[in-house]
Amino acid sequence: MSILVRHAMTESPQTARPDMSAADAAGLMQQLDAGVVPVVEGDTLLGLVTDRDIVIRVVANRKDPQDVKLADIVTRSPVTVTPDTKLADARNVMAEHKVRRLPVVKDDRLVGILSLGDIALADASERAVGQALEDVSESGSTSDAGGGPERGTPGRVRGAS
């Protein structure tokens, strides 16, 4: 029997409105101990704002988080899944799109959010979850550029042979 997204997702996640500030979203994330807040207008998902969005799009640009509206920094049209998506398929979507969280929508309404951590807790395939995490985390700055020791091998070990 396949595990479905509905069995692992966080239902009815706390949301933010597009007219709220980045500071409001950061406070909400702190209160919820979460790294993402879905931004909705009515029942319609506009996108997601993550802690990283606030750092990269607001703080790093020396903008005042009180003045920046979520509508200006939201990641629009995020990849989504439905509650009836197989968990393994959702994991593959995360790996393919290099995201750690997926909004769960039904009839264009946000009904939940699924994180890679949720999948890790619900999925018996630790190897597949680990591979998904590696795929999501891989970027140009973290991939091996060649010319050095294998990833994870300290230089002192390499020089000791």
Q: Can you give a write-up of this model?
A:
With 161 residues, this protein is of the alpha+beta class. Helices cover 37% and strands 19% of the residues. It has seven helices and six strands. The strands form two sheets. It has a three-stranded antiparallel sheet. The protein has a three-stranded antiparallel sheet with strand order 2-3-4. Helix 4 runs parallel beside helix 6. The longest helix is centred in the C-terminal third of the chain and has 12 residues. The protein is globular. The mean pLDDT is 84.
Structural class: alpha+beta
What is the assembly state of the chains in this entry? single chain
Number of strands: 6
Q: What Rg, in angstroms, do the CA atoms define?
A: 18 Å
Strand order of the largest sheet: 1-6-5
Low-confidence stretches: none
How far is the first residue's CA from the last residue's CA?
A: 50 Å
Query: What is the helix content?
Result: 25-40%
- Give the count of helical stretches: 7
Largest sheet: 3 strands, antiparallel
Defining key terms:
three-stranded antiparallel β-sheet, single chain, alpha+beta, 7 helices, 161 residues
Short description:
The protein is of the alpha+beta class and 161 residues long. The protein has 7 helices and 6 strands; from the N terminus they run E-H-E-E-H-H-E-H-E-E-H-H-H. A 3-stranded antiparallel sheet has the order 1-6-5. Strands 2-3-4 form a 3-stranded antiparallel sheet.
Topology:
Elements: E1 10-11, H1 22-32, E2 36-41, E3 44-50, H2 51-59, H3 70-73, E4 75-76, H4 87-97, E5 101-106, E6 109-115, H5 116-122, H6 126-137, H7 155-159
Antiparallel strand pairs: 1-6, 2-3, 3-4, 5-6
